[in-house]
Structure formats: structure tokens, C-alpha cells
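Recall from the previous lesson that a structure prediction takes nothing but the amino acid sequence as input. Here we apply that procedure to Sigma-54-dependent Fis family transcriptional regulator from Ideonella paludis. The sequence below is the only information supplied.
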Amino acid sequence: MSPDDLPVVLLVDDEVRSQDAMRRTLDEDFRILTASSADEAREWLTRQEVAVILCDQRMPGQMGVDFLKEVRERWPDTVRIVISGYTDSEDIITGINEAGIYQYILKPWVPDHLLATVRTAVEARTLQQGLSRLELELRTGAPLLKARRAQRLNEAQAVFGFERIIRAPGSPMEGVCAMAARLARYDLPVLVLGESGTGKELLARAIHYASPRQSGPFVMENCAAIPDTLLESELFGHKRGAFTGAYEDHIGLFQRAHGGTVFLDEIGETSPAFQVKLLRVLQEGELRPVGSTRAVPVDVRVLAATHRTLEDEVKAGRFREDLYYRIAGTTLHMPALRERADDIAVIAQHVLRHVAQELGRPEVHFTPEALSCLSAYAWPGNIRELRNEIARAVALSDDVALRPQAFSPRLRCGEAASLAKPSAPELASLPRKGTLAERLDAVEAMVLREVLARHQGNKTRAAAELDLSRVGLRAKMQRFGLDEA
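The prediction returns the following C-alpha cells.
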């Protein structure tokens, strides 16, 4: 915090040594102004907002409490503290009440006590100002609160709406988002299925911010990330003393999400014992915090997700059938990235912009060959793996143009294997006329190209796969006019 941002404290004392002592005590935490009389103090107050004023009682011209009465009327937001060496004067006692003195400090004061008093006074002033603003907004019908809530909601929808789920025209995600948008209107449970890293949480947030509960909280918990013994406490809360380490009451996520949405990721990882407790909450609409004898009503919409096939888990006895039908009111399937080949380039461009900005290299871009390499890979880790790969390439490449060489070897191998597969035009180009020997030569040339591409031009491995010597392979390459480079 810069000195200009520190709370301002005005010291009013006609003794310079007393001013200096108070300044040394307070100047690390506050911006200090000094005045030797009430007149000088008024000049400061008319020019500068003052958080706290410390005023000596015995001053020439006007007593401290009399001046602070005026401060209360003209500058009521300033916290008033009086310092005096006298305690038995009736005018001081009466003046303290009339001036609304926050604290009376007796001389000789203790530095630590003085500092603590001023700190508390500033905190009390900040709290009072916040309460006053809230009271004003409530008294005027709370239009400001409504406007702020609407603004925050619009910002959240812009960040988490369905349009923020990156996809190409005609993508399989179009159908998923369209169905999710329809389901979002109704207060139904939704189960999102899909591999890890496909964006299940992103879809759940979009459903929440398109639902009637959009102004309520959205809270999530990864059920696989917390031991089962703690998951109940995290979701449903606990009372002080419920177990070792429970030193205070804890409000669970379900209570925090009251009126909103709870997203339970990887719900398939929960134990049957926990599933019973969760089912009770969903059926009865109330929960009992750990260690409590009183049920607490909760109003939440539950969205759940898992990478497992829950129907198989139900058949295997690892997931309760009644809970499955409770959470799977409707099921949405997030396709894996390999099932969204046309989306890969679009998502990669989007990810690159964010990653390059984070790493301070906004000029970095993909070459067409790099995008082809990314699109050819299967992406078992889905979007999460794609982002990690792009971040690695940006960090390790000094060139502004990212080429296939910037990616991990497994991506380049995947690209070579994809390019090695005969395309429809290649298959169509096979001769339909000619002798058997001529047609077999064409097929043999295609096989040679495929094997060489898959082994990235390594003739030793290609020859071994084809059960040829390197000399024999080279002879066939020359015969069919294949590039030996």
C-alpha cells in the first residue's frame, strides 16, 4: 500500500514533543498530519478526509472535548479520541458524552496501547461506512444491489455460457450444448458422462448460468480428491467437537449452495456408505451435519459427472441403483477430443492465445503443418493434455511460428501414422486396368510409403517390418521412385 492510500490520522497537540512521540508510534501504519491548535486542525479537516483525530484535552484557545463536539457535527465520519492527564473533571466527562468520543486515553499513554486503539478505530470506521452504504441501498429499494447483481450475472454468463464452449461448426458439441441449454431451464438433475479432461465442469457451469438458479451460488467438489471420511464433512458440514480436529462449526458446500447448484465431479469414485447419505439428502431435501442432531433444510440442484460407466458400476454392485436413478434424471455425454477432430484446430488456437498471453509471448502462432499435427493426434488426455502440450511448445520454442518439431515426439509419431494411412483419393488412384503385375506394383508402392511414413523414414525399422534387407528396401524404393531423403 502506498503512503497516499494509508488511513489519515490527525494529531492535535500544542506540545511538539508529544506530537513527535505519537508520530513515531503511528507513522508506519498511518499517514500522519499534525496541528498545534483547534484552528490548524480545522484547516486540515476542510482540505483532507481524516479517519481518526487524536486531540489533547488541555490546549490554548479551546479545550479538546469542546473542539471535538464541533468535529462531531461537521465531520461525523471522523473517529474522535481525546487524550488527557486529568480524570476527575466533570466537564471532561460531560464533554466526552456530548462529543461522541470513541476512546479516552489517559496520560502517560503506552505506545502499544495507542497503536492498537487507533487501528481498532479505523476498522470501526470502515465497518460503519459499509453499514451506512448498505442501509442507504436498502432504504432506496436496493436498486444498486440489483444492478450489481445483474452486472455480476452478465459477467459470469459471458465467461461460462454455452457460447464459451469452443467448437467448430457442425461439431458433435453442438448437439450436446443444445440439449444442455434446454435442460438448464428445468430444475432436473443432470449426469454428465465423459473421459477426464473433456470439459464436464465447463458444461455444468454453463447449465447453472442458463438456469433459473443463475443468481444463486455454484459450488463444486471433486469427490475423487477427498478421502471418503472427509467428504461427508466437506459437503454436509460438521459441528464443533464432532471428531478430532473439529475445533469449530463448519458449513458444508450444500448449505453454501442453498438456492443454487452443487456440482459433484467424479461421483463414481464415492463409496457405497457415502452414497447412502447422499441419497438421503437428495430424497429428503435436508441434511444433518456431522455431530449434529438437527436436520437443516437445503434447496439445491445437483449436477454430477463421472468418467465411469455408472450402469456397469451398478451391475457390479459398486454404485447404488437408487442413487443412480436419482442423479441421472437426464444424461449428457461429452465426446472425447478424438471424436471432435474438426474442433481440435479451433480449440488449439483458442488455447494458444491464452497460453501465449500468460507466458508473455502474444506473437506466437501455429504453422498449418503444426495444426495438422495436432489434429492427427488421438489426445487420450483430451483438452487438458492439449493445453499442456501447447504450453510446453510455447515455453521451449524460440520461434514465433510453432512447427511440428516443437511438439512432443509422441505427437509427431501420431501425425506420421495418420499421414501414412491411405486416403480415399489414394485408394481411388489405384489402377483399375492393367495386368496383375502392374496392379500389384501399385499396391506394393503404397505399402512401402505407408511403412516408411509410420517409421518416420527409418529404413532399418521399415525393412525389418517388411522382412527385407536394407539393400532390398533401397532397391524397391528406387524401382518405385520413392524419395530416399
